[in-house]
Design goal:
Elements: H1 5-26, H2 30-33, H3 43-62, H4 66-80, H5 85-105, E1 112-117, E2 121-126, H6 127-151, H7 161-165
Antiparallel strand pairs: 1-2
Helix pairs in contact: 1-5, 1-6, 3-4, 3-5, 3-6
Length: 166
């Protein structure tokens, strides 16, 4: 899956996550784990959630069963839990390499992916739509991080798509 919009959107997702992580690495250590009154209790919790959700969707796109996906997410989430920003960066980098490897194998971004979920039943998704969902979900939660940084008296970092395009 070379040179298509879905891959470009995923490139943006990786870039935006890197922008946030690099910014956090420049701030006092306490900011990353500080308890704040927000949707998540800390910035680290947001980033672990984002990491786990990206794993969920990659496993779904690969065709893993619901139960195998849950096991994989829980295993990797527990490895990342309590990680420093530097350690989380390594987890994010490894996951993006997995995504890129998967995407490189895909011939058709419009192919249908069929999933089975115990609550939602059988669903059909277009691969490109799932990639766009991963990116959209990330954008939403990077916004949470910016709000939480402001609560702590810190500034956020621009991650709008247009900055990626510049």
């Amino acid at each position: 899956m070379q040179n298509n919009r879905a891959k470009k959107m995923y490139d943006y997702h990786v870039w935006a996550n890197q922008q946030v992580i690099q910014h956090l690495k420049q701030l006092p250590d306490r900011v990353y784990n500080e308890t704040v009154k927000s949707v998540f209790s800390s910035i680290s919790d947001v980033l672990i959630h984002l990491y786990a959700t990206d794993i969920t969707w990659l496993e779904t796109m690969k065709g893993s069963s619901f139960h195998d996906t849950v096991r994989e997410v829980e295993r990797r989430k527990s490895e990342a839990s309590g990680a420093s920003v530097d350690e989380l960066e390594v987890f994010y980098d490894a996951l993006s390499k997995e995504f890129y490897s998967f995407l490189a194998e895909q011939q058709d971004p419009e192919r249908i992916i069929i999933t089975e979920h115990p609550q939602y039943g059988r669903s059909e998704f277009i691969l490109a739509d799932l990639i766009h969902h991963v990116v959209n979900h990330g954008t939403y939660h990077r916004g949470n991080v910016t709000a939480m940084l402001r609560q702590q008296g810190e500034r956020g970092v621009p991650t709008d798509y247009v900055f990626f395009l510049y």
